[in-house]
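Please fill in the sequence for the structure shown.

STRUCTURE ENCODING:
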C-alpha cells in the first residue's frame, strides 16, 4: 500500500468530505480515504498495482477539488474602453427553486473569500438567465 496526500483548496465543508470519500472509494485499488475540510487535505491509501496517484489526482480535479476556483471579475471600465477584453457585467437570473424571485449579482470591492458552487454537488438549475451587456 502507498499513501498520497493532496491539497484540496475547494474542500471546505463536511458535505465535501462525504463526496470526496464517495468518489475515491468507488475507484478500484483505493483502500482508505482521510479527508479534512479543516485542513483542506485528502490522504489516500491505495494499491499501486491497481491505480496510481495521477489517476486519483485526475478524478479529484475532474470533481473540482484540486484547483482553486477564480470567479470572473469586472473590469471597472466601460465596454468600449476594454481594449479587446470581454467585460464582465452584473447579471440577473431566475431559479426553479425560488420560482418568481429574481436575483441580482455584481462584483463589489470585498476582500474576503467569494462564494461559489460546491464541487461535486452541482449548481442550482436555472430557468432563465439574462446577461446585461
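FILLED IN BY: designer on duty
SEQUENCE:
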Amino acid at each position: 500500500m502507498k499513501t498520497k496526500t493532496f491539497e484540496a483548496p475547494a474542500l471546505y465543508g463536511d458535505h465535501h468530505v462525504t463526496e470526496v470519500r464517495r468518489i475515491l472509494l468507488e475507484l478500484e485499488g483505493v483502500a482508505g480515504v482521510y479527508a479534512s475540510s479543516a485542513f483542506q487535505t485528502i490522504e489516500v491509501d491505495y494499491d499501486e498495482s491497481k491505480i496510481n496517484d495521477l489517476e486519483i489526482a485526475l478524478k479529484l480535479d475532474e470533481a473540482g477539488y484540486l484547483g482553486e476556483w477564480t470567479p470572473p471579475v469586472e473590469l471597472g471600465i466601460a465596454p468600449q474602453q476594454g481594449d479587446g477584453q470581454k467585460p464582465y457585467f452584473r447579471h440577473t437570473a431566475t431559479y426553479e427553486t425560488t420560482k418568481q424571485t429574481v436575483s441580482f449579482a455584481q462584483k463589489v470591492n470585498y476582500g474576503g473569500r467569494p462564494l461559489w458552487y460546491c464541487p461535486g454537488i452541482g449548481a442550482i438549475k436555472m430557468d432563465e438567465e439574462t446577461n446585461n451587456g
